[in-house]
Write a structure and sequence with these properties.
It is a single chain. The protein has helices at 4-7, 12-20, 26-42, 45-60, 63-68, 73-119, 123-128, 131-177, 181-186, 189-226, 228-233, 237-293, 300-348, 408-415, 438-444, 459-464, 472-482, 485-489, 508-521, 538-552, 564-569, 587-593, 596-605; strands at residues 369-377, 383-392, 397-402, 423-428, 431-432, 445-448, 457-458, 498-499, 526-530, 556-560, 572-577, 580-585. By secondary structure, the protein is α/β, with parallel strands linked by helices. It has two domains: 18-348, ABC transporter type 1, transmembrane domain (ABC transporter transmembrane region fold, Up-down Bundle), CATH 1.20.1560.10; 369-607, 3-Layer(aba) Sandwich (Rossmann fold). The strands form three sheets. A six-stranded mixed β-sheet has the order 6-9-10-3-11-12, sandwiched between helices. A four-stranded antiparallel β-sheet has the order 2-1-4-5, with helices on one face. The termini are far apart. The structure holds adenosine-5'-diphosphate and magnesium ion.
């Protein structure tokens, strides 16, 4: 009948689970429930007091009595009214504050839980899930969960209780006075319920569209700002603009639909409310006139009683309409919150995490590496590595060469268990990598990736990764060894120079060198290096080559090499093709063989061949 998101109503168990996150804040939770009950109990008191003022105060006392008597009934009742009003306001303040702070506390916990979950997810999960989606889960969706507490369920419960309390009072007044005014007032209510239902559905649909449009806007803007260089270089601003304006149009249209629904709904509520009051007055007048015609009627007290009841009921109707006016909104908020929480729980329930149940932490790691019949696929059955077997001894350097897509990066991603192999065995110092404590394993393996990622933060923070146990002197020493120190100190602020997001203000070569400093600081037993393919200027080239030599000294190293100079110095060279090892040996051996490596050399490094090195 309706569109998907509202058709699929998340159930009670989901709500229960959301509330388990409120468990640490039991006090706040029970306080808000208690306040709901208190507010509900107080709701009909003011109408009751008004009724008493009119019927008992004005009717039974002469004017002079209540003006002159200092302890007069009217004065007393007025004081009670004022006190009640103050108490009610205080309770309402406390209620709003408690539910909102409960929501915020839950949001804080939920966000930390979600973030921790995401951090420990298997890397393959990030190949499947767009980054924007995960961002939305941790930021926007969790914000909606807050609304369940501050604008959703608890306020709905409070409103319902108030409504029940007021209706009970009205029926009680009717019962004691032998009237049927409540039923008369409520006659137009089916109309209101119908209007509320249509309003809720329309607004809900529009909000789902608005949210989707917002998500699209976010993704679009994020992606295009990231790729702004490309957009401008290809002069495609116009095309992108029209795409952007289309998404914006969807956003506007959906919002206008919601605004339309609001514009219709509120006047309808006003109409129904006026109708109720009109019916009330009409019926009461009719009844009291009829009763005055009865034998023994014409009792002025009866008319006076009616006056008090009418006034009190008008107040009651106002108190009834106030929550009814917003209850549709609150149900929408609740529904949105539940859809959002369902999404958040999906992230939290993701079982695809790196298992870290092993505890082996040897004192030292020599660093010999052995692959035995290793097969690996990112996606089921599409093997990118087939039957890989090789061994490098501690301290040796292995260079991996091969065409793009041959599986070089994949091989190195397996050693520190970024991905899990499908079959075979990888061992370091003859112990399977599965048996090592994961944090220990990763701390002993230094990785320099092809595209260096820098966080926004200072140079110092970027190379230490905010590890406070690494001192500034240590960083400087490492930077000097790599040959980056002179460059860093001439940056504005030196080591405190703020690197922009993704390191946009540094050149590729500089970023690569910074990541060398990072790797050196962690003093790993095994070094893994995915050389950047892009050519860098000859000065950086020399710096990088020099840095690599320093880095690999005394460590087992695996280098995905594009530089002939790096490859030649390696103890072993592995040639990969379509996920299989086609050749392995030293440079001289492989050149003599005139096989795949020889061909690759001719093709890839032909222009370099005359650059004979010492
Ligand atoms: N995260 C990934 N998810 C799915 N397939 C991938 C992923 N990364 C790489 N591949 C695929 O695995 C194969 C080997 O890639 P890779 O190891 O990066 O090659 P190389 O580093 O030699 O260029 C390629 O066919 C590539 O498309
Ligand atoms: Mg690669």
């Amino acid at each position: 009948m309706s569109i998907a998101p509202s058709a699929k109503k998340p159930g009670f168990s989901l709500l229960k689970r959301v509330f388990t996150f409120a468990a640490p804040y039991k006090k706040k939770f029970y306080a808000s429930l208690l306040l709901s009950v208190l507010l509900a109990v107080m709701a009909p008191l003011r109408p009751l007091l008004i009724q008493m003022t009119i019927n008992d105060g004005i009717k039974n006392h002469t004017a002079s009595h209540f003006i002159n008597g200092p302890g007069g009934f009217i004065i007393e009742i007025t004081i009670i009214q004022i006190v009640l009003l103050l108490v009610e306001s205080a309770c309402r303040f406390w209620f709003t504050f408690t539910t909102a702070s409960l929501g915020q506390s839950v949001v804080k916990d939920l966000r930390i839980t979600t973030y921790n979950k995401i951090v420990h997810l298997n890397l393959s999960q990030f190949d499947k899930t767009p980054i924007g989606t995960l961002t939305t889960r941790t930021i926007n969706d969790i914000e909606s969960v807050n609304d369940i507490f501050s604008d959703g369920l608890i306020p709905i419960i409070a409103d319902m209780l108030s409504i029940i309390s007021i209706l009970t009072y009205m029926f009680w007044v009717d019962y004691t006075n032998h009237t049927h005014l409540t039923l008369v007032c409520l006659a137009p209510f089916p109309l209101l319920i119908l209007a509320t239902y249509f309003f809720k559905e329309t607004v809900n649909k529009s909000f789902v569209t608005v949210r989707n449009a917002v998500a699209k806007l976010n993704a679009f803007v994020q992606e295009h700002i990231t790729g702004m260089g490309l957009v401008q270089a290809f002069a495609s601003e116009k095309r992108e603009q029209s795409k952007f304006s289309n998404i914006n149009k969807d956003h506007r249209n959906a919002n206008i639909k919601a605004i339309f629904a609001y514009s219709v709904f509120f006047p309808v509520v006003e109409l129904v409310s006026a109708l109720s009051i009109g019916l009330l007055v009409w019926w009461a007048a009719k009844e009291s006139y009829a009763s005055s015609l009865l034998p023994g009627g014409n009792d002025p007290n009866a008319a006076n009683n009616t006056a008090g009841i009418i006034t009190s009921f008008i107040l009651c109707l106002n108190l009834l309409f106030r929550p009814l006016r917003v209850i549709a909104d609150k149900f929408n908020v609740l529904q949105m919150g539940m859809i959002a929480s369902e999404r958040v729980f999906k992230v939290i329930d993701n079982q695809d995490v790196m298992l870290n149940q092993s505890t082996y932490r040897p004192l030292t790691m020599a660093g010999s590496i052995e692959f035995k019949n290793v097969a690996f696929a990112y996606v089921e059955d599409r093997y990118v590595l087939k039957d890989i077997s090789f061994k490098i001894n501690a301290g040796e350097t292995l260079a991996i060469v091969g065409h793009t897509g041959s599986g070089k990066t994949s091989v190195i991603s397996l050693i520190n268990r970024l991905y899990t192999i499908n079959s075979g065995r990888i061992a370091i110092d003859d112990i399977s990598i599965d048996e090592y404590d994961l944090d220990f394993l990763r701390s002993k393996i230094g990785v320099v990736l092809q595209d260096v990622f820098l966080f926004s933060g200072s140079v110092l923070e970027n190379v230490t990764l905010r590890n406070n146990s690494i001192g500034r002197e240590e960083v400087e020493r490492a930077a000097k060894l790599i040959g980056m120190h002179d460059f860093i100190v001439q940056l504005p602020g030196g080591y405190d120079y703020k690197v922009m997001e993704r390191g946009a203000t540094l050149s590729l070569g500089q970023r690569q060198l910074l990541s060398f400093v990072r790797a050196l600081l962690y003093d790993p037993s095994i070094l893994i290096l995915d050389e950047a393919t892009s050519s860098v200027d000859s000065e950086s080239e020399a710096l990088i080559q020099n840095a690599i030599d320093k880095l690999i000294r005394g460590r087992t190293s695996i280098i995905i090499a594009h530089r002939l100079s790096t490859i030649r110095k390696a103890d072993k060279i592995m040639v990969l093709d379509k996920g299989e090892i086609v050749e392995m040996g030293s440079h001289e051996e492989l050149m003599r063989k005139e096989g795949a490596y020889f061909q690759l050399n001719k093709m890839q490094f032909g222009f370099n061949k005359n650059n004979q090195e010492s």
